[in-house]
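Hi! If you just cloned this repository, the fastest way to understand the data is to look at a raw example. We've pasted two of them here, unedited. The first protein comes first, obviously.
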Amino acid sequence: MALSRTRTTASTKPAATRSNGGTLQAAKAAQTRSRLLEATVRCIVKHGYANTTTPRVAKEAGLSRGAMMHHFENGAALIKATIIELHEKRLRAFRRAAERPEEHDVDTLVETYWAQVQKPAFIAFHELAVAARTDKELADILLPLQEEFRDRFNAQAHALFPEWGDSPTQFDLAMSLSQTIMEGMAIAVQTGAMDREKVPMMLTHLENQIRAIMPATARATAGKS
C-alpha cells in the first residue's frame, strides 16, 4: 500500500506541476501578446500605419524582435490580430455601457460614444481604414474583419436595446446616424476641419434627432433611467 501510495503521489505531483506551469506559461504568453497589440496601436497612432514596422513595435513593447515573432510570424499577422482586438474592445465597451440602465438615456448614450471615439483605439482604426484604401494587402485583412464586426455590433445592439424591438428600422437609423456623425466629427476635430468648440452643439442636435425617431417604448425606458 505504501508503494502504491508513493507511486500515486509521484505520478500526481509532476502532472500538477505541469498543469500549473502550463497555466503560468499561457498567462505570460497572453500578457506578452497583449503588450504587443497595445504597442502596435501606440505605434500606429504616433507614427502612422506606413511607419509601423515589426522592429518598431517590438521596441515599443520592450521586447526583442525574436520574442515578437514567436507570437506573430509576420507583420500581417500582427496587424490582423490588432484589428481583431480593436473590434473586441469596442464591442466590450459598448456592452458595458449599454448594460447600465442610465446609458439608455439618449444624452448619456451619445456622450459615452463620443468619449469612445476620442480614444487611441479609434484613431488607430481610422488610420488603418484610410491606409487600406491604397494598400491591397491591408484591405484584404481589414474588410472581411470589418464586415464581421458590423454584423456582431448590430446583433449586440439589438440585443442590448430591446425597447427598440418593435421599431428595427428606426433603431438601425439611430445607430447609423450616431456612428456616422460622431465618427465623422472625431475625424474632423483630429484633422482641424472642425473647431472643438462646436462639438457640444453638434451632440445636442444629434440627441434631438435620435429622440425624434424614438418609438414610445424606447422613450419610456429612457425616461425611467
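Ok, and the second one:
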Amino acid sequence: MRLLIVEDEKRLALSLAKGLTAEGYAVDVVHDGVDGLHRAGEGDYDLVILDIMLPGMNGYRVCATLRAAGHDVPILMLTAKDGEYDEAEGLDTGADDYLTKPFSYVVLVARVKALLRRRGTPGAAPVRVVGDLKVDTAARRVFVGEDEITLTAKEFSVLEQLVVRAGQVVSKGDILEHVWDFAYEGDPNIVEVYVSTLRRKLGAGRIKTVRGAGYRLETR
C-alpha cells in the first residue's frame, strides 16, 4: 500500500512517515498544499493523510479539488483545530475521516487501516486463499496449510502485491512503487531479494519469475 502525507510540520510528517514505513507501507511526504494536490492527482496512492492548515493551498481546497476531479482516494484529514464546524467542513469537502491534533499514533494507524479496508471491494473478505496459502490482509498473518509463517513488514507487503493479483504477472516496477516509495533510489534488485526470501519461507515453486515481465503467484 502506498500512502501520501501532506503535512507542513516537518518533524511530525517525518515521524509519521517513519512509523508507517515500519508498518509496511510505502510513504511519500510533501509539505504544502499545491505539491500535495499535484502529487495526489498524479500519483497512484491508496490513501492520503492531509493536514488542513497548509501553505499554498489549505487542506479543504486540496480535498475538494481532488474530489471535483473525480479522485476517490481515501483522505484522512489532520488539524490542530477542533469543533463540530471544522469537522463538518472537512467531511463536506469529501474527506473520509478526521483526526484532531494532538492524536495517538496508535489511533492514526487504526484509522488508516480501517480506511484501507473500507476501500476494498464491498463485501470482499480480507482473507485471500490461494491453494494452501492463506493471507489475512487485515491481521497481516500468513499460513501455509495449518502452519503460520512469520514475515517481516516488507516481506508481507511484497506478498500482498502478488496475492491480490494471484495468477497475474506483477512487474518489479509495480512492487517497487507500492512497497517502497516515490523517492526510493536504491538497487531495484531489492525486489528479487524479497521474492527469494518469500520462496524460501513459502515454498520455492509458489512464485514464478516471468522473464522480462515480473512475478506471478501460482494459483495451483
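That's it. A detail worth noticing about the second one: The helical segments are 10-22, 33-42, 59-68, 84-92, 105-119, 153-163, 172-179, 190-202.
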